[in-house]
Amino acid sequence: MRTFTLATTILISAGLGAAITRAAQPAVTHSTVFEWTSGETTATPWGSARQVTRNPTPTLEELEIHISTLDPGKSPHEPHRHPHEELLIIKEGTLATFQNGETRRVGPGGIIFQASNELHNVTNAGPARAVYYVVGWTVPATSK
Question: What is the pLDDT along the chain (144 residues), one digit of tens a residue?
Fold first, then answer.
C-alpha cells in the first residue's frame, strides 16, 4: 500500500488545479480570418448582436470582436466606462456617439475610438438600422 505525505498530496492537487485552469482557459488566437457570417446572431431589445471572437492573443489578455445592429433610435446601453479600449467601425447607418459630454454623428466608414475609462455610448441616429463592428482589447495591465 502506498502512502502519501501531505507535501505529495499538495503537489498533486496543485498540478491538478493548474491542469483544470489551463483546460478552462480559451485557446490563444493566432493569425486568422473571421468571415462576415461567423458567429451566431442573437436578438436583443435594441436590435441584434453577433459575437465573432472573445479570446486571448499572444499579446492581449482578450481580443473581443462583435457585430451590433441597432434599430432606429435605439442604444445598446446607457453611457458607461470600462478599462478596455475599443473601436467601433460603422458599416451601415448613422450613429450618434456620446463621449465625455459631447455628441457627434458618424456614418458608414466612420471609426469611433473609445479610450479606457471614458464615459461613452452610441445611439442609432438615423431612420434605418445601423450596423457596426466593435473591436475591443484588454491588455494585462488594464484587466486588474
Answer: 444 444 444 444 445 444 444 456 789 999 999 998 878 899 999 999 999 999 999 999 999 999 999 999 999 999 999 999 999 999 999 999 999 999 999 999 999 999 999 999 999 999 999 999 999 999 986 555
Domain boundaries, the chain: 41-142
Residue 92: name the closest of 36, 45, 52, 51 by CA. 36
Instruction: Show Cβ contacts of residue 17 under 8 Å, excluding neighbours closer than 6 positions.
Output: none
d(Cα 121, Cα 68) in Å, to the nearest integer? 13
Which CATH number applies to 41-142? Answer: 2.60.120.10
User: Quick count: other Cβ atoms within 10 Å of Cβ 31?
Assistant: 6
Helix%, strand%, coil% for the chain, nearest 5: 15, 40, 45
